[in-house]
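Board notes (copied after class):
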Amino acid sequence: MDHNNEIGKRLKLVREALDLTQEQFGKEIGKSLNTVNSWEAGKTRPPDHFMKVIEKIYNISPKWLRRGQGDMFLPDISGLMGGGDMLEINIWELAGAGNPLVSVDAEPIERVTLPSKMVRNYTNGFKVEGDSMYPTIVNGAYVGFDPNDKKVVSNGIYCLNLPYEGYVVKRLEIKPNEIIIRSDNKMVDDYSIPLDEMSQNLIVGRVRWIFQNV
């Protein structure tokens, strides 16, 4: 087994779970985009001290990152807190018609407190139901989104408001005449929407952070 390649794949899963580009991920741990790319491609292996940095900053389980055993994130979020501030996150309804964020009378169904270092300024979120985005996002995960970012970027992950389904989290790909709605779970079929039929209310916002145990 190529251990460099396996670790690289797991590093990519971490980065995608946190919705960071390779460049953003590199900046946060003090490495270049090229270095992160080399790690994820399995060409090189992160030095042990950088593995420890990644584990500490993002609360990653060493057993999972190094050997693929157990959960990605440690159940205790103290590794993310680092003594820093916490923010209260509004968790909105997952199903039903309409967009609760546009109603002045709307109330979140739940509020959770998470480290500000992780959620940054994105304090609206959903709790994911189902496994259509597994293994990137698991059932029960919290995802935070930016309601002001609705521009489709291929391979980006978004909160969507779909007819008859309500709120879901999916990966989008833009084509010349259509939007492809993808699930990371290969058992779930992708489907497309013609651009001229795309509702203005389809995209609730782009996913900016994910908090989960996998």
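Comment from the instructor: The chain has two domains: 3-75, 86-211. The chain has a mean pLDDT of 81.
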